User: Which sequence fits this backbone?
């Protein structure tokens, strides 16, 4: 089939570190992954550079931008997960709520405890850890790097009523939940000034929980809980390479 039958789309990825590049031991500051057409490239690149700058985790002196054309025929359009919110008085209560939600989604106590250990760790991953929902075993072999989900974005980049952060997180969670291997996700930010986190799954939707950590804390990350029968290579390939647009929804 001639390529021109599909509109051209590009994946744009950013990673920023302080001190030196990540692979040389620099401190992870910020990352971002977007999707857009040729006309949107400059705006997206500018937005990602802005995201890397003035960051609460530190001052980036290594920033990498990668632009890659994605196969148009693989593009998928999906609606965002439904959004709900739980407000609690303390971080401990937030953790309890998150654990309840994860258990309801079918994640074992062992797996939940391992995930909290990973996210509370002072040395963050800069991507997600993939954890078996029954045994709690970490399945990816990416070490500190983890797995970065990319090639997802909103179709209507134009209006940003909610914060950019919430839209980015909802897009990521929606893509992750789309895989039949995903049982649930747990996330809170590694940014010291952002204490809201979430638990998400196809069934639960996107459940914001605040607070999930204390102000000033730089620990955070993401854990994707997967079924025991996961094909880990194809799962990681889906997370990193499948282009997905999130379309519509009431989250505005
Ligand atoms: N793929 C996999 N893991 C990622 C990705 C990605 N594309 N982006 C971030 N992470 C991991 C990584 O370990 C980061 O350290 C961690 O998540 C946190 O990233 O509804 O802001 O961008 O109010 O700091 C969630 C709540 C906010 C939003 C999450 O995450 C809301 C947030 P951050
Ligand atoms: Mg962050």
Assistant:
């Amino acid at each position: 089939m001639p390529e021109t039958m599909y509109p051209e789309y590009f994946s744009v990825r950013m990673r920023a570190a302080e001190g030196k590049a990540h692979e040389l031991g620099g401190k992870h500051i910020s990352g971002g992954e977007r999707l857009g057409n040729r006309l949107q490239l400059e705006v997206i690149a500018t937005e990602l550079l802005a995201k890397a700058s003035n960051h609460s985790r530190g001052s980036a002196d290594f920033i990498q931008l990668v632009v890659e054309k994605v196969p148009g025929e693989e593009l998928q359009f999906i609606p965002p997960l439904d959004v709900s919110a739980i407000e609690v008085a303390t971080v401990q209560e937030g953790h309890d709520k998150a654990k309840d939600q994860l258990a309801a989604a079918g994640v074992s106590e062992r797996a939940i405890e391992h995930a909290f250990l990973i996210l509370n760790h002072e040395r963050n991953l800069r991507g997600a850890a993939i954890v078996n929902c029954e045994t709690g075993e970490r399945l990816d072999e990416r070490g500190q790097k983890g797995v970065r989900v990319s090639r997802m974005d909103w179709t209507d980049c134009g209006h940003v009523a909610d914060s950019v952060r919430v839209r980015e997180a909802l897009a990521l969670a929606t893509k992750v939940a789309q895989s039949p291997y995903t049982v649930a996700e747990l996330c809170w930010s590694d940014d010291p000034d952002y204490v809201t986190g979430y638990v998400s799954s196809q069934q639960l939707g996107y459940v914001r929980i605040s607070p999930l950590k204390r102000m000033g804390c730089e620990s955070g990350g993401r854990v994707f809980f997967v079924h025991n029968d996961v094909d880990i290579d194809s799962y990681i390939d889906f997370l990193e390479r499948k282009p997905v647009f999130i379309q519509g929804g009431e989250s505005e």
